[in-house]
Amino acid sequence: MKPVSDKRRKRDAIYATRRQQVWERGNGMCEHCYMAAMGSVHHVAGRGGPDPHRLDNLKGLCEPCHRKAHAEPEWARSVGLMRSRIEN
Ligand SMILES: [Zn+2]
């Protein structure tokens, strides 16, 4: 089994905390349509960069919205669910 680096472990722990914060921020509902339960966390500007799990890069989405965000990037960009990079 591949050993997990400390850096990776720390990142995973941060992500677990942030996912919980996103859930609380959205009261467990999709932060896009507000019609369905939050199913998973979407990375608006992807998972690259030094801190991809920062809260302003995360949106809690229901599964249909999450699927649509990836399947229809133009739509996702127009509704703020996709950016080309993290803006500081
Ligand atoms: Zn939704």
Question: Any chance you could write out the topology, listing elements then pairs?
Answer:
Layout: H1 6-25, E1 40-43, E2 58-61, H2 63-71, H3 73-78
Antiparallel strand pairs: 1-2
Question: Could you characterize the architecture of this molecule?
Answer:
The chain has 88 residues and is mainly alpha-helical. The protein has a single domain (6-78), classed as His-Me finger endonuclease fold (3-Layer(aba) Sandwich), CATH 3.40.1800. Helix content is 40%, strand content 9%. It has three helices and two strands; from the N terminus they run αββαα. The protein has helices at residues 6-25, 63-71, 73-78, and strands at 40-43, 58-61. Strands 1-2 form a two-stranded antiparallel ribbon. The protein is globular. The model has no long low-confidence stretch (mean pLDDT 93). The protein binds zinc ion. Residues 30, 32-33, 36, 61-62, 64-65 line the site of zinc ion.
Features:
mainly alpha; 40% helix
Average pLDDT over all residues? 93
Stretches where pLDDT is under 50 for at least 5 consecutive residues are none
Number of domains: 1
Structural class: mainly alpha
Give the DSSP E fraction (strand runs of 2 or more residues): 5-15%
The third-level CATH topology is: His-Me finger endonuclease fold
**Number of helices, where a helix is a run of at least 4 consecutive DSSP H or I residues:** 3
Cα-atom Rg, whole angstroms?
Answer: 14 Å
Shape: globular
Characterize the biggest β-sheet. 2 strands, antiparallel
SSE string, helices as H and strands as E: HEEHH
